[in-house]
């Protein structure tokens, strides 16, 4: 009888530990990456003048944390209804052209997913609305997505519209302005590990209980 009580207590403790571990594991780093091809002007640092570039591959990387992801409900605007937008504030953000040296973006930015329009992308970190730098069409492929899994979306066409110009400041005083995009776009998230299965802990409890009865 004593062994059975001990096994039950141990099982409960393991279940609690499993729950707490799952909750802490939910807070994990996540990286959102947007790639494409664009044209515009680049200023590599403060004292350097702008130079034009044409159809250069670019990569924008935003690093955040799953624990800081928020659901923002945008109010109805004109013909559009209220919308659910998943927001991932960026703790770090960089941009690279042609796989060159990354520039640190100084603008407060965020990755987002707008389920109503079926778009993902990145934008200014502003409360009460999303001012997009760039959108990638996802359609219905990401319904229910909340930056809690690794995904890859490829849009074969360049973005048709943005709510804001692609105008980014760099921490070294540089700046990039892109106003023309060609070819396909991709959006991916990486770094999210699957949460441990509670079924595994249930099996461990059953095995421990049976062994304790012997």
Descriptive account of the structure:
Helix content is 19%, strand content 43%. The protein has 214 residues and is an alpha+beta fold. Strands 1, 2, 5, 6, 10, 11 and 12 form a seven-stranded antiparallel sheet that branches. It has a five-stranded antiparallel sheet with strand order 3-4-7-8-9, with no helix packed on it. Strand 1 and strand 2 form a beta hairpin. The protein is globular.
Helix content: 10-25%
State the helix count.
2
Q: What is the CA-based Rg, rounded?
A: 23 Å
Spans with pLDDT under 50 lasting ≥5 residues?
A: 2-25, 197-214
Per the principal axes of the C-alpha atoms, what is the gross shape? Answer: globular
Multimeric state of these chains? Answer: single chain
| Helix-strand string | HEEEEEEEEEEEEH
Total strands: the figure is: 12
List keywords for this structure.
alpha+beta, disordered C terminus, single chain, 214 residues, five-stranded antiparallel sheet
Question: Topology, please?
Answer:
Elements (H helix, E strand, L loop, with lengths): L1 H25 L2 E15 L7 E15 L4 E5 L8 E7 L2 E6 L5 E2 L4 E6 L4 E6 L6 E7 L14 E4 L10 E4 L5 E16 L7 H16 L1
Antiparallel strand pairs: 1-2, 1-12, 2-5, 3-4, 4-7, 5-6, 7-8, 8-9, 10-12, 11-12
Helix pairs in contact: 1-2
